[in-house]
Amino acid sequence: MIRSALLLAAATALALPLAASAQSGFGNSALKGHDTRAPIDIDAARIEVRDRESQAIFSGDVRVVQGNMTLGAAGMRVFYENAAGGNLAINRLDAEGSVQLVSPSERVSSRLGIYDVQTRRITFVGGVVLNRGDSVLRGERLVIDLESGRSTLDGSASSASGAPRVTGRFVVPPRGGQ
Fold first, then answer.
1. How many domains does the chain have?
2. What is the pTM of this model?
3. Residue 135 domain-assigned?
4. What is the pLDDT of residues 67-90, one digit of tens each?
């Protein structure tokens, strides 16, 4: 159910016109160059392992930490495969319910999140709020490329005009002579 809801929401968000896209270039992301090979620590109230499906379902205030990035949600489905030495290689994490990402430079909240470890991208869908310092952006779909640090935010159709829009507030720091 979590996976189908994520896929439906992601497909809906992908249908938004590209004209509503905006790069959130207000500072460099601390996630640029994030090491997706670093160990992933998971903490949750419950786990259900579906080994035949190569999935683990975590529930109850799930918290995932990898390097300087923390991802939290009410529930998370982890897709994995068996790797050399009997280890498990995590390919993707699908998060649902009060999704939160925290890094040294930003905070993101949304309804759904997909961390694709293999492509090094994190996608957030549904009521996305991106905070960097006191500045904030809002939209419907955010993609963070961990390789380049580039963030792309697509607008929400809930604007007054009905057209997909990104909204934001940028706090301008005082400058030398002011």
1. 1
2. 0.79
3. yes
4. 999 999 999 999 999 887 888 899
